[in-house]
Amino acid sequence: MKILFIQDRYIKGGGTEKFIEIRRRKLEEKGHQTFLFTISPDKLNFKNSIIININEINPLNYYFKLPEVYLKLRKYIKKINPDEVHIQNHFIYLTPFLSLTKNYKRKIYIHHLKLICPSAWGIYRDTKKICDCNSGIKCLKHKCVSKKGFLDFIIKKLFITKYKKTEEFIANSKSCRDLFKKQNFKNIKYKKLPFEPEYRDKKIKRQKNLFIYYGGFHSHKGIYLLINAFKIAIKENPNIKLEILGEGREKDNVKKLIKKYRLKNNISLIGNINRKELYKYYKKATATIIPSIWFETWGYVVTESLFFNTPVIGSDMGGIKEQLENNKLGVLFKRNDSEDLAKKILKLSDKTTYKSQHFQ
């Protein structure tokens, strides 16, 4: 069987991207052929793939590339004639994705809330309070999206309405599935995403007072909340350290905040690392912190960290709360509450042993 994966924003090292890599590998081990069509700001090289490079700094580049994306995808579909099409993240190009694949059996995987929320955050951007994802005038009132972005979302929403009852949607968490059901998505089911560690060496050398964050430098990921929490926690325990792994457009602002709070001796910016190096950090860390303020449907970092019996401190919302099973497999803090996050950091700061039931 020939299966085409389509994704419109492939970010190297991301959780969705990791899912695609694992899924393709498992399908090919069973004798299937897999193909990939994607758009990415990174230089990628995968077999049986068409990758269109776009400079992510300017979102308008995605719109300028629309004719190229449409024509290349149409040609690629005709060339391989897939038996199934698996559509992944869909920020800009959902309309051409669906129109060009209408004659093929397809599955639409939900990795975020973009189909029901213009910003995909699931919260109001100005107040950071949880919204009802009802996509009304409140989206503009709370500065969740620009007028142009809101119009684009409404058009997309009208387009997707006819597919709500007929398409097969797959959510990566129960909380995500339930949220979409409230928005009248009838044929949506939950499916646990596959996890397959690249390196299985589980020799642990845990360190006290060492915390890690792996992810992008983006406000919705809670990076500023994390810095503020460390500022509070250090007053009580000046020995705690934070190592931030990753990159992002807001890195310069994060650097300025670290400098402003005089946290250079406690917080280190490591930059991008490969999976093998990341696993070394999991094995030595006291805990992994997931400070997201938006609705994470599911966190690959949570799964990886628990695989190494490294506790996770995560926000009590969406897929993270579900993965940590309400404090059974980690420690939850009140979402967007830097003081509560600081308390949880201090709670785990001197621990070097932790037993998770997740993979036993």
Description of the structure:
The protein is α/β, with parallel strands linked by helices and 360 residues long. It has two domains: 2-190, Rossmann fold; 210-348, 3-Layer(aba) Sandwich (Rossmann fold), CATH 3.40.50. The chain has helices at residues 15-29, 60-64, 66-80, 94-100, 138-141, 147-161, 174-182, 223-236, 251-260, 275-284, 300-307, 318-323, 338-348; strands at residues 2-7, 33-40, 49-53, 84-87, 105-110, 168-171, 188-190, 210-214, 241-245, 267-271, 287-290, 312-315, 331-333. The strands form two sheets. The chain has a seven-stranded parallel sheet with strand order 3-2-1-4-5-6-7, sandwiched between helices. Helix 8 crosses helix 13. The two termini are 34 Å apart. Residues 356-360 have low confidence and may be disordered.
Radius of gyration: 21 Å
Q: What is the string of SSEs from the N terminus onward?
A: EHEEHHEHEHHEHEEHEHEHEHEHEH
Oligomeric form of this entry?
Answer: single chain
Given this structure, which CATH class of the largest domain is correct?
Alpha Beta
Structural class of the secondary elements? alpha/beta
Tally of separate helices = 13
| Mean pLDDT across all amino acids | 88
Low-pLDDT windows of residues: 356-360
Let me know the number of strands: 13
Indicate the CATH architecture of the largest domain: 3-Layer(aba) Sandwich
Strand order of the largest sheet: 3-2-1-4-5-6-7
Distance between the termini: 34 Å
CATH topology of the largest domain, by name, is: Rossmann fold
What is the strand content?
15-25%
